[in-house]
Amino acid sequence: MKLQPLADRVVLKQLEAEETTKSGIVLPGAEKEKPQQAEVIAVGPGGVVDGKEVTMQVKTGDNVIYSKYAGTEVKLDDVTYIIVKQNDILAIIK
Predict the structure, then answer these.
(1) In this predicted model, what pLDDT tens digit does every residue of 29-63 receive, in sequence order?
(2) Between 8 and which of 23, 24, 25, 86 could a Cys-Cys bridge form, CB atoms 3.0 to 4.6 Å apart?
(3) Is the pLDDT of residue 70 over 80?
């Protein structure tokens, strides 16, 4: 992994968008909505952020749901990653 997040940052790799709806309708490329689900690729060390102690609650390999407009997209080796703060992650999918 070439990306090492700092402080309370988490590197995510977005999961693929659904190509069909639940009723079986095939969606063309432009109509696909970006999913808000991603796999955790790397996790920062946590520590003191803005005067508060931050303990990292996610780990590498977790599948998570994150805020729709959160993070910064970074392209590395033809793969797009999203770097978000831990508090932009809404839930862990179990």
Answers:
(1) 655 567 799 999 999 999 888 898 999 999 999 99
(2) 86
(3) yes
Q: Which helix (H) or strand (E) holds 90?
A: strand 89-93
76, two tokens: 């590395």
Residues in the chain: 94
Q: b/e string for 6-23 if b means 16 or more Cβ within 10 A?
A: eebbbbbebeeeeeeeee
Contacts of 6 (CB under 8 A, 6+ apart): 44, 45
Domains delineated in the chain: 9-15+34-92 (2.30.33.40)
DSSP 56-73: ----TT-EEEE-TT-SEE
The whole-number average pLDDT for the span 20-34 is 68
Q: 8 is written with which tokens? A: 């309370």
